[in-house]
Design brief:
Layout lengths: L1 E10 L2 E7 L1 H6 L5 E5 L7 E9 L4 E7 L3 H6 L7 E2 L1 E6 L10 E7 L2 H14 L3 E8 L8 H7 L2 E6 L6 E2 L2 H11 L4 E5 L5
Parallel strand pairs: 8-9, 8-12, 9-10, 10-11
Antiparallel strand pairs: 1-2, 1-6, 2-5, 3-4, 3-7, 4-5
């Protein structure tokens, strides 16, 4: 059983969890994921690991409640437990020093892009992060992204926060003004 150490709503239907999983936290690399199961015989759900803290033995997950299991997961609170978590799984993102990297997260894609942006920064790159959402309420992880980025641009479809438009508009603007060595974009189809 894996104890939920922190449970915090980020936006409607999106919740951040810090879960005590020391073995996973110690081995995690950007781009990896876990599979969790809430109870015996329950659905197995893959989720990207948004962050890990080996010192505290925790992993961070950002969950959008879409189906039955993720909606049920988002009802859980601090101190409650998750039956099974397996990981870290998957091939880690290829990270190296390349120069200027633009990392783009649209909606909950920000949670998936964040660990890779953090890893690129740790490798010595200049990191520009673009985060967006349909409106201000759906822009997530802004403080975390600012802490690991050299520059942050925010866009909202409706113009309620940051620049009006979509994240790819901000990317075009950046690329018209400076050399970008690599781009990582994670988000919905319109991106």
């Amino acid at each position: 059983m894996f104890e939920i150490k922190k449970a915090k709503a980020l936006s409607p239907n999106v919740k951040l969890f810090e879960i005590h999983a020391p073995l996973i936290a110690n081995k995690f690399q950007a781009g990896q994921f876990i599979i969790l199961r809430l109870q015996d015989g329950g659905e197995r759900v893959p989720l990207t690991i948004a962050d890990a803290n080996p010192q505290n033995g925790t992993i961070t997950l950002v969950v959008q409640g879409i189906g039955r299991t993720t909606s049920r997961l988002n009802e859980l609170k601090e101190g409650e437990r998750i039956r099974d978590i397996v990981g870290p799984l998957g091939k880690a993102s290829h990270i190296e020093k390349v120069g200027t990297v633009v990392v783009i997260g649209g909606g909950v894609g920000t949670a998936i892009a964040y660990p890779t942006a953090k890893a690129f920064k740790k490798a010595g790159n200049r990191v520009i992060t673009i985060i967006g959402g349909r409106n201000k309420e759906l822009v997530i992880l802004e403080d975390e992204v600012r802490a690991i980025s050299d520059e942050v641009r925010i866009t909202t479809d409706d113009g309620s926060y940051g620049t009006k438009g979509i994240v790819t508009d901000a990317l075009k603007n950046i690329m018209s003004k400076e050399t970008v060595n690599e781009v990582l974009a994670i988000g919905p189809i319109p991106m």
